[in-house]
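Good morning,

Attaching, inline, the backbone tokens for the sequence recovery test we're adding to the shared suite. The designed sequence is right after.
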């Protein structure tokens, strides 16, 4: 069990100081997804997972709509879900490839399906989907803060209507990502990163 403990939640209207944090800068500079296939037990326990999801819920949410929700896959239920998805692999364009992709689903001990669930509101639906993506990112960082490896994946089963029905999604909902969490059997290696100077443009009228 992790030694990480969340501080008491701030009350509505509490001032939240904006201060420099070397620890946060270092964590962001070293953020790296673990291979889903390398994730094994133990994963977070119920208390740790609740804390991780609590942190993920601090994602920007324009309009305070909470246009997302979580479906947790673990234990025997996760095994049954994977079996149902495996049966659907044969109907894909490349059944062998679809079957092979399921190692990402079966290896990790825990999966959190982040469901993008836009609400009727003046906030554009696109922005609500972006908020669900922000939740996925914070979930990765929160898992890392608790000492777990994590990976954000959709793959074919994230888009298959049959899997969406299996998950119980509503017509307006979609899968923002399967976030796989577990103990990393090996440290992920750094990969090529964007050259940020190529991506910065100064606007001039």
């Amino acid at each position: 069990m992790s030694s990480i403990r969340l501080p008491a939640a701030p009350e509505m209207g509490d001032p939240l100081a904006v201060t420099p944090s070397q620890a946060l800068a270092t964590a962001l500079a070293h953020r790296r997804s673990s291979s889903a296939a390398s994730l094994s037990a133990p994963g977070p326990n119920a208390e740790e997972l609740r804390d991780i999801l609590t942190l993920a819920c601090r994602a920007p949410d324009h309009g305070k709509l909470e246009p997302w929700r979580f479906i947790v896959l673990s234990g025997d239920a996760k095994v049954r879900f994977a079996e149902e998805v495996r049966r659907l692999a044969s109907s894909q364009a490349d059944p062998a490839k679809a079957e092979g992709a399921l190692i990402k689903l079966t290896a990790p001990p825990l999966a959190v399906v982040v469901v993008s669930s836009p609400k009727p509101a003046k906030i554009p639906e696109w922005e609500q989907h972006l908020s669900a993506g922000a939740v996925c990112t914070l979930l990765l960082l929160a898992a890392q803060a608790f000492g777990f490896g994590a990976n954000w994946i959709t793959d074919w089963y994230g888009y298959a209507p049959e899997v969406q029905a299996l998950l119980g999604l509503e017509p307006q909902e979609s899968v923002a990502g399967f976030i796989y969490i577990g103990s990393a059997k090996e440290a992920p290696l750094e990969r090529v990163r964007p050259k940020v100077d190529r991506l910065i443009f100064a606007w001039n009228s």
